[in-house]
Design goal:
By secondary structure, the protein is α+β, with helices and mostly antiparallel strands. The protein is built from three helices and four strands; from the N terminus they run H-E-E-H-E-H-E. A hairpin with a 5-residue loop joins strand 1 and strand 2.
Length: 101
């Protein structure tokens, strides 16, 4: 188990992530603002949109539009340990900004 922690920490020190700024109109008309975090080498917007749609299903907001109009690349950042863990588990991480409750 110790080896795993060392491995994750080592990855965290070098992992860069792409931040995709996302605004989706909820079913009730309010706006959800969240960031989709993915490895920086994932450049395909369709893959990023799939991550966002998976998140929307969890929030009971499935079938809401999520396209390049709602979701745009913002910047590259250093991954936090929580981001690394989520990316290793499911390919992405979500930062809830507002309207995501």
């Amino acid at each position: 188990m110790t080896g795993m922690k060392i491995s994750v920490n080592k990855i965290n020190k070098t992992m860069k992530v792409a931040v995709w700024d996302t605004y989706v109109t909820r079913k009730d008309g309010a706006v959800m603002h969240f960031d989709i975090i993915a490895p920086d080498h994932v450049r395909n917007a369709e893959i990023i949109h799939t991550f966002g749609k998976d998140y929307l299903k969890v929030k009971k907001q499935e079938n809401q539009p999520l396209t390049s109009k709602e979701c745009r690349f913002c910047h590259i950042a250093q991954a936090s340990p929580e981001m690394v863990e989520s990316i290793n588990a499911k390919g992405y991480y979500i930062i809830e900004m507002q309207g995501c409750e």
